[in-house]
Amino acid sequence: MLSFLDQIPLNVLILAALVLGLAPFFPEPHLWEKLKMLASGTLTRPIDIFDLVMHATPVVLLILKLIRMGSLRG
Q1: Alpha carbons 69 and 47: distance in angstroms, whole number
Q2: Domain range holding 26?
Q3: Of 12, 13, 25, 69, which is least surrounded by CB within 10 A?
Q4: Longest dimension (CA), the chain
């Protein structure tokens, strides 16, 4: 898994995290909407759960890559 993460260019992950994390830009990004639904306990429909996973995956991968890059330097 970590070798797969090492092969993904950082700029691609940043772009994917920004585009998918913030899409659609109006009226409210899906990721933010789904996180609010999760916090309030209304994230129950399968399509909403899929939406959360799809929009959050690039952000999670970016965070993991940054952690991995930091651990390799130190």
Answers
A1: 33
A2: 2-73
A3: 25
A4: 43
Mean pLDDT for the stretch of residues 27-51:
94
Tell me if 11 sits within 8 A of 18, measured CB to CB. Answer: no
Structure tokens at 40: 């309030």
Q: At what angle do helices 30-40 and 46-73 cross, to 10 degrees?
A: 100
16's CB contacts (< 8 A; 6+ apart) are: 58, 61, 62
Report the pLDDT value the prediction gives residue 74, as an integer from 0 to 100: 67
CB 68 within 8 A of CB 2: yes
Residue 37 pLDDT grade (very low, low, confident, very high; cuts 50, 70, 90) = very high
Per-residue model confidence (pLDDT) at position 72: 79
Question: CA–CA separation, 51 vs 36, rounded Å?
Answer: 13
Q: How many domains does the chain have?
A: 1
